[in-house]
Amino acid sequence: MRSGHPWLFADSIHEQNRAGNTGELAVIYDRKDEFLAVGLYDPDSPIRVRVLHAGKPQTIDASWWRNRLQETLARREGLFDAQTNGYRCINGESDGWPGLVLDRYGDALVLKLYTAAWLPRLGELVPLIRETQAGERLILRLSRNIQRLAEKEFKHADGEILYGPGLNEPVIFLETGLRFEADVLRGQKTGFFLDQRENRRKVEALAKGRAVLNAFSFSGGFSLYAARGGAKSVTDLDISAHALASAERNFKLNADIPAVAGCPHEMVQADTFEWLDKSANRKFDLIILDPPSLAKREAERAGAIRAYGKLVAAGIRCLNNGSVLLAASCSAHVSADEFFAVVRQTAAGSGRKFVELETSLHAPDHAARFKEAEYLKAIYLRFDK
Fold first, then answer.
1. Per the database record, which ranges form the S-adenosylmethionine-dependent methyltransferase domain (predicted)?
2. CATH fold of 63-172, please?
3. Given this model, what pLDDT does residue 149 score?
4. Residues near 199 by Cβ (< 8 Å), separated by ≥ 6?
């Protein structure tokens, strides 16, 4: 608590004066009965209290919430221009809103909750968002572990529109001038992977004249940037037919861009690990390896590190000389140091000469301000032989 960590686990509570209700403000004291922090109480979670404020006592009222939101939004000032209207407005604990994110997709706002502690506070939170954020509608998304409680106790459902007109199709937003669809009602996360924006921009700068493979391509974000950047061809590889169909629609949304319209776009539905193993005879000049989390719990960490090594080795075998490999990880249980180490070791073990171009972590609107929030990392290698 004193060092700024935003979670109080149930096992760390020495004494509790009464049973608390979901979403109540819980005041935390140290062994000398001195104030430590105040946060949102969640009796059904091992993270029993999610800290809102630590240090000197403060009154948590409507004015406090409004100031907290204004401070959060101020951190985004100057980050985006009119060519990008898809970005994160509130990034959970790292912005002082534990267990809550708010994303913008054009005129649509998506509020995602990861703890039930926010559910009884929607009545005061929603008007505050509506007051401070321009937007046609606000959609509620709920973490899977709280959906049943939300429906039974609080009468809220995943995909519910909290205000604004109904919606039966994905919304369209801009990212660096490219048009994308976001399935804000049912899609993964809040509808799109906004956190890879900066890496997509780097891929565009690297893509000219290259044959590009986008493995675990999802809705084709990296591929669209590569096509606009002048790629010779792009191949989307994903096991999901639904994801590939979304990628195809995203390409059609940008058909008025000559470089996109003129870039050959192949889509392959297959397991990436198996396809790479069987396709070593196919060569590419730029390969993006951006798998979903391979370690969703600590017990899976060692296996994930081995899987990353296997994946990178397979990708290297499919690279031409002078080609670039982008390897990314969104597994919070695998640290950046561990991930970069296995990629470097695998590259060294390939026997090929390579140069490390750069590494990257979180986008500025997804800043991570405590260890458990650190999940995204990427490394770029160029193989000269």
1. 161-359
2. Transcription Regulator spoIIAA (3.30.750)
3. 96
4. 222, 326, 328, 360, 378
**DSSP-assigned states of every residue in 310-341:** HHHHHHHHTEEEEEEEEEEE--TTS-HHHHHH
Domain extent listing, the chain: 7-54, 63-172, 193-383
Residue 295 has pLDDT above 80, yes or no: yes
- CA 243 to each of CA 33, 70, 354: distance values in angstroms, whole numbers, following the listed order: 54, 36, 32
The three-state secondary structure class of 167 is: coil
- E strands, the chain, are 7-9, 25-29, 35-41, 47-54, 86-91, 100-105, 108-113, 137-142, 160-163, 171-175, 178-182, 211-215, 233-238, 265-269, 284-289, 319-329, 354-360, 377-383
Tell me which residue of 235, 299, 222, 300 sits closest to 272, measured CA to CA.
235
Burial grade of 6 (CB within 10 A; 0-12, 13-18, 19 or more): buried
pLDDT digits (tens, 9 = 90+) for 128-186: 999 999 889 999 999 999 999 999 999 999 999 999 999 989 999 999 999 999 999 99
Taking the C-alpha atoms of residue 212 and residue 205, their distance in angstroms, rounded to an integer, is 13
Mean pLDDT score, 273-294: 94
CATH of domain 193-383: 3.40.50.150
d(C-alpha 155, C-alpha 279), whole Å: 50
What would the mean pLDDT of 230-244 be, rounded to a whole number?
97
List the structure tokens of 38: 């105040």
Amino acid symbol at 359:
T
Amino acid at 138: L
Report CA 373 to chain centroid distance, whole Å.
11
Give 1's pLDDT tier (boundaries 50, 70, 90): confident
Nearest to 292 by CA among 277, 302, 304, 275: 304
Widest distance between CA atoms in the chain:
70
The answer to whether 162 and 139 are in contact (CB under 8 A) is: yes
Q: What is the pLDDT of residues 97-140, one digit of tens each?
A: 999 999 999 999 999 999 999 999 999 999 999 999 988 999 99
